Amino acid sequence: MASLSLNLSSLHHTSINPLILRCTPLNLRTPSQKPFSIRSQAAPVLSQDDLKKLAADKAVESVKSGMILGLGTGSTAAFVVDKIGQLLSTGQLSNIVGIPTSKRTQEQAASLNIPLSTLDLHPRIDLAIDGADEVDPNLDLVKGRGGALLREKIVEAASSSFIVVADESKLVSGLGGSGLAMPVEVVQFCWKYNLIRLQGLFKELGCEAKLRLVGDGSEKPYVTDNGNYIVDLYFKNPIKDGFGAGKEISALEGVVEHGLFLGMATSVIIAGKTGIEVMTK
Fold first, then answer.
1. Annotated catalytic residue, options 61, 107, 134, 152
2. Which residue, 5, 61, 85, 272, has fewest beta-carbon neighbours within 10 Å?
3. Which pLDDT tens digit goes with each residue over 147-167?
4. Does the annotation count 185 as an active-site position?
């Protein structure tokens, strides 16, 4: 058997150079790479029209197939009519009959194939949805800056339920408090006489009465769907007694209707930057 012997002395005298490894520190970041950071994105700012649409969509959730609906007038109500037309076209609603509160709403609803009728044929309305120009804490309203206050009040008074849709800019502590118009519809005959009388009723509130013009820079008076004029009342201070003010206005000969909608709203849907709020009495 062969044997293997190891001469340790030879190893002792043999010089061995140690192996040294030098490593460059690793750069785990490429030159083009930027430091990683997390930034929260701000929520998109909603426009007034966005808020109106949110309120309108929420209100339409109360619409059921087979209902007779009062269709309001104005920029917010237009979103309601659009949504109802959309749901009818997709089959999510059916057998709806709309009662429009203006010629403008009638034309919009007809273009969306919403079946229409009148109070003469449907004297009781299941639900009306409309906008408002002012909403106070008691859910009393100023309406009619769109010029349809008479037909709006007739239709909404005939409704079992009346939902108001608005954005948060319409909230006021007292009616007339926005400083914007509170409309009064008057017959054309002796309109200036009634304008002076209306202004005199609320002299202590710093009221200024103006005949509404068509708004195209001309001096032509605005004419309602009913052939009447509108006198707009501008208050420096809120109206203290809405019911009393309404009675005084209505008592003037030649006054057709006023824009104080008192005790009529079942609920008010307000869209704000923090979400949707449903106000009920």
1. 152
2. 5
3. 999 999 999 999 999 999 999
4. no
